[in-house]
Amino acid sequence: MDTLLSISVLGDQLAKIKQNLIFFPASYTLANVQTFLTTYAPLLDTITDGKIVDATVAFSLTLPGGLKGSPVTDSDARMAARMSYANGSRYAFGNYIPGIGAAYRVGGVIDPTDTDVAAVIDAMVTGLSTFAPTNGEAFDLTAFNKVKLSLLK
């Protein structure tokens, strides 16, 4: 998997943020990507009317053993569970789980009390091994709100 640099650009109309995505070889280090960004961001800033508000980088990680070797037959990655969580901000945090299993979407509804679904919810709210996710703005996820079935485009 390549390393992904995502540069967020804020437009004036509707206050929408869009991403400029750039991929690099997996062998690149954080310092390599930072060096590129330091020179590239002013070039991008010159040709966009938007405001560059941040840049993030995603590196590939080693997946644990024991995961599926192939998708379940007839599975559809577009079918997603949209999980919603409360946090310290006034906005709920949404997290999509693509390819939600058919066994978990009975009658178009996902049951958050199902043991497997509840384990995912608990991991998001309370964390695992002392590490817990945030809403992307440094607010801890404090409670589960709801889950909806969504079709991703």
Helix share bin: 10-25%
Low-confidence stretches: none
Beta-strand percentage range: 25-35%
What is the molecular shape? Answer: globular
Order of SSEs: EEHEEEHE
Radius of gyration: 19 Å
Number of structural units classed as domains: 2
Mean pLDDT across residues: 92
Described by its quaternary structure, the protein is single chain
User: What about the largest sheet?
Assistant: 3 strands, antiparallel
Structural category is: alpha+beta
C-alpha end-to-end distance? 23 Å
Question: How many helices does DSSP assign?
Answer: 2
Beta strand count:
6
The largest beta-sheet arranges its strands as: 2-1-3
Give a short overview.
With 153 residues, the chain is α+β, with helices and mostly antiparallel strands. The protein has helices at residues 30-47, 115-126; strands at residues 3-10, 17-24, 51-58, 79-87, 93-98, 141-151. The chain has 2 domains: 3-58; 79-151.
Description:
- The protein has helices at residues 30-47, 115-126, and strands at 3-10, 17-24, 51-58, 79-87, 93-98, 141-151.
- The protein is an alpha+beta fold.
- The protein folds into 2 domains: 3-58; 79-151.
- The strands form 2 sheets. It has a 3-stranded antiparallel sheet, with helices on one face. A 3-stranded antiparallel sheet has the order 5-4-6, with helices on one face.
- It starts with a strand and ends with a strand.
